[in-house]
Structure formats: C-alpha cells, structure tokens
Amino acid sequence: MRKNRKILLILFLIASLGLGGSYSGLAEEEQQLSFEQCIQLALKGSYEVRLAELDYLIAETNLGVAEAIYDTILEAEISYERDKRKQLSIFAGEEQTTNTYSIEATKKLPSGAKATLSFDDTRNFSDSSFVSLNPAHSAELTFEAEQPLAKNAFGYIDRRNVSVTRLAIQNADLDTKERIEQMLADVESAYWQWAFAKRSLDIHHDILEKAKRLHAVNAKNYDLGLIERGDFLGSEANVLIREKDLKIAENQYRRSEEKIKLLMNVRADSRFYPEDSLEYKKRQVDLEESLKEAFIYRRDYQKAKREIEIKGLVLETKENARWPEIDLVTTFAANGVERRLGHSSSDIFTDSDNYYSAGIKFSFPLENNLAQSEYSRAVYAQEKTIISLKNIERSIVTE
Hints:
- By secondary structure, the chain is an alpha+beta fold.
- Helix content is 57%, strand content 20%.
- It is built from 9 helices and 8 strands.
- It has helices at residues 2-20, 35-45, 47-67, 156-223, 229-264, 287-297, 299-321, 341-350, 369-398, and strands at 31-33, 73-83, 96-108, 114-126, 136-148, 272-274, 325-338, 354-363.
- It is elongated, with a radius of gyration of 42 Å.
C-alpha cells in the first residue's frame, strides 16, 4: 500500500506539472498598458471611431447638396446649319448657312428669384443677291427674372430647407460623439474587467501554491501515519480543484485580454497586461444637480429638442407648399445686326433696339392632394417628436 501511495504521489506531481505548469507569470514580450494608453489606442485604431467620423463627414456633405439650389448653371451651345434645298421664292438663294453661338448663366437667389442672363449670336450667309447684309451677325443679350410671390415666396421654402439640413448635421455630430463615447465606455469596462481577471488569476495562483504546500505536508504526514487516507485524498482533490480553478481564471484573463485588443484594434499576436489595479472611490451624488447636468448634457435630450425644431421648420415649409404658385416674370432683351460680330455686339449697348415684357403666372392644383398629405404628415411628425421629448424627460428623471 505504501508503494501504491508513492506511485500515486508521483503521478499526482506529474499531473500538477502538466496542469498548473502553463501559468508561468507574464511573458517578457508582454507590454504593460495603463487605462489612459488603452483609451488613446482605441481612439487611434478603432474601426468604430473611424466609421462614426465617416458617417458625420457624409452627413456634412448634405449641406452642400441643400445649398446646391443656389449654384450658378452655365450652359453653352454651338451649332452649324447648311441648307441647299430648293426654295419656292426666287429671292432666296441656292445655299444658306447658319452658325449659332449661345451662352447662358442661370442662378437662383436667396430671395427665391430665378435670374437668367444669356448671349446669342447667329451668323447667316446666303448666296442670294437680295440680302442686304451678307454675311450678317445678329447678336442678342437677354435678361429674364422670375420671382415667386406666394408658394416659396421670396425663397421661404429654400432657406428653411437649408436650415433643416444644418440642424440635421448638428444632430449627426451628436450621434458621432455618442458613438465614440460609447466605444470608449466599452473600452473602459473591458479594461477593468481585464484588471479584475488579472487580479483573480493572481489570487487563484496563490491559492494553488498554498494548496500544493499543504498537500506536500499532508503527504509526509500520511507516509508517517499521522493522518488518515481520507484526509490525504481530500488534500489531493483540493489541489486538483484549485488547478481547475486556475485554468478557468487563466482562460477568463485571456478572453478579457482579447476583448480589449479587439476594441483597440491592435495586432492579434500582441500581448499586454494591465498596469492599473482596481480601486473603489466613494462618490457623493446630489439628485438635483444630477438632473440639471442630465438635461444640459444628455445628447439624446439635446437631439430630441433639435428634432422638434427641425419638424417645426418642415411643418412651415409644408404649409407654404399648399399655397398657389404666383410668379412675377420679366424679360429684357436688346440686339444688334451687323456684318461683323464685334459691331453687332457693340450695337446692343448703343442702339435702342430692345424688347421688354412683364407678367404674372398662376398655377394651382385643384385637389392639391400631395401638398395636403405632406402637411398632415408633418403635423403628425411634429406631435410625435414632442411626445418623444417628453418621454426622454421622464426617463431622465426616473433614471
């Protein structure tokens, strides 16, 4: 029996080396990381941070899209025409050629007016002997303006659409900050879980060492007959249980390490260990001050208030969209006709050959279903946003 006990003790020591020998402390290549260093690495390398920044940059481009309504549009056209068809009149020549050159600039102003300035030149040539100017350049400068007086009066809808876009970008900025802070909160939580796992690993290692020392003493006492077999086997089982607990603690520590490495987006083969240890700091909290800070700094509350402002502007634009279109339209043109382009162009400003017109256009759909439906939708959307804000207020107080 003593021989069997010795064999069992040898097998147990071999098993101890196999089970507990994997914990050999920190490897030399492991790098110590503080909480602040983890935050910095996460800010620099996290994909979530970059995605949040890109979403904000994408949202920021919407302002350019909204303001594009005021862009100046430049158009140009050149054409050539040759006509040798038979003519009914004897005064027409056998061949006529026409060259047309035109350039036009259109711009919508913040006042809602649409202004168009164009210059056209037409060069005509004919082999007819009855044409007084051959070739002849006919140059014309035209200015047209159209000003809304009812729907979108003086750019009412356009300016508010730009304002809505600006407010939406401010909300997108809050979303970006919220996502980044949430990621940093995840890093903070992961770091302290990692530090806790490290502390737990150290404790389980110390417990195992004490269990091994106790078992070594019990083994000697058992060989001397000072303790019973049950006590010896119980001591042996305690060591095996502590080795199992150490394995679990070591696995938990590695999982915590891999989690924070994922959040920081560092190389998978990098090894780290936490520098900071767990501490508990008691904090005095005042309910009234906490509520004041929450209503000032809670981003979901700020976004909800701005969303109400956005919905209010949208409602105003939809209400204006129900009005009829009444536009003041004016046109002024002057031209000159000469053999050369330079002379015909100068005649535009020297001669009194001009044209002007003014009028009012009216347009209104009799049923107006689209505008009425969009207005009703905007009313409901604004009410929904107000209720959401009240719900957030109640949640803040409850929390």
